[in-house]
Design goal:
By secondary structure, this protein is mainly alpha-helical. About 75% of the residues lie in helices and about 0% in strands. The protein has 20 helices and two strands. Strands 1-2 form a two-stranded antiparallel sheet. The longest helix is centred in the first third of the chain and has 30 residues.
Length: about 450
Amino acid sequence: MAFVGSIVAVATIGGFMFGYDSGVINGTQKGLEAAFDLGELGIGVNVGAILVGSAIGAFGAGRLADNIGRRSVMMLAAALFLVSALLAGAATGSAMFICARIIGGLGVGAASVISPVYISEVTPANIRGRLSSIQQVMIITGLTGAFVANYALARVAGGSTALLWYDMPAWRWMFWLQGIPAFIYLVALTRIPESPRYLVVKGRDEDAVAVMTRLFDPETARRKVSEIRESLAGDHHRPKLSDLVDKATGKIRPILWAGIGLAVFQQLVGINVVFYYGATLWEAVGFSEQDALQTNILSGVLSIGACFAAMALVDRVGRKPLLLIGSAGMTVTLAIVAWMFSTAIEGANGGVALPGSNGVIALVAANLYVIFFNISWGPIMWVMLGEMFPNQIRGSGLAVSGFAQWIANAAISVSFPALVVAPGLAITYSGYALAALVSFFFVKALVHETRGRELEDMVG
């Protein structure tokens, strides 16, 4: 278990980087707007640039991992994180910044799909769910770490646009700080083994046995390697994208539609609006910049707590029940947030404000929504994508599902600044609530439980 714990700990640093790189933008938007003279559309494009890279990275990483290995792709992602952090902080214009964020997005997309599959492929079935759930804990920890760092830097400087060390504004240091964990991630990855499932695909059975022997006893290790070999295609060809089509029917495998649906609905409920635009959102309804940044931290801490609850429950309750609970809870809480935003009035300073206790109600409902998401769809979607596909199509299934997830993320995130203006927050959040409601029925109809099943037993 110590060996399993150590390699999972290293692999999930990718989740931390995923979260940090996604969340760092939250406190930098005033700096970007001032430095690059951006309007609402410009902010949306600069914030959403990472998502273009993420979609490409997720699709490419799934296929690349089948060719060069899971660990090698994670190392490539770590290098991309490091380069992105340095370039984004040093950007002299919007074009340079967008390029830097696309580079970071390639790393985010790769880490988002490869870390869960690597963890699922090196952990025993009876604890696979809780160990895979650590990925989401680390994503939220990374987001929260970015929120805390942004808050601290802005507080020390006197604002995100105020000058800090070496006469550089605080928002630039928010990006540069990301280089530290990126470097740690790159070095740590050199200390973990390659996935035994990948080694079998490459015909390196003895290497796979050596890794498995560190996880199980020698006899079990050899038996599992044989089971992996038998689970691959009958003609033992290398995994390819066309394997996603059922040869008997000529149609796309049903398991792929389930994976795409899980990936897309996780974004359609609007969670990354909170993570990317949390500060802007709460300032839009009357909070000060400092209060808005503190609210981000609160949401991050609650998210981490919810993820730990998911870890405790996922291998006991199962994946599907948690998804259903999350969908129901998010439907109710998002509807309450939408209702509160519908009561907005003009504030004393000419901005928008929520009357009476409505601001507090909106804040409580929003944080309950974050809790419901992170006890269910946040970690469980990644757990299921990492384990639900048969060995032969795991890389390809992840490539397509991950690509769909990031495209949906981009659509929600890039559109949000314009939607705040028209049709407004109330209608926008009503749309997210509707998506949560539909996701409940999607799970009931198309998602099958995977708790306790060996990866070699997955069919689709």
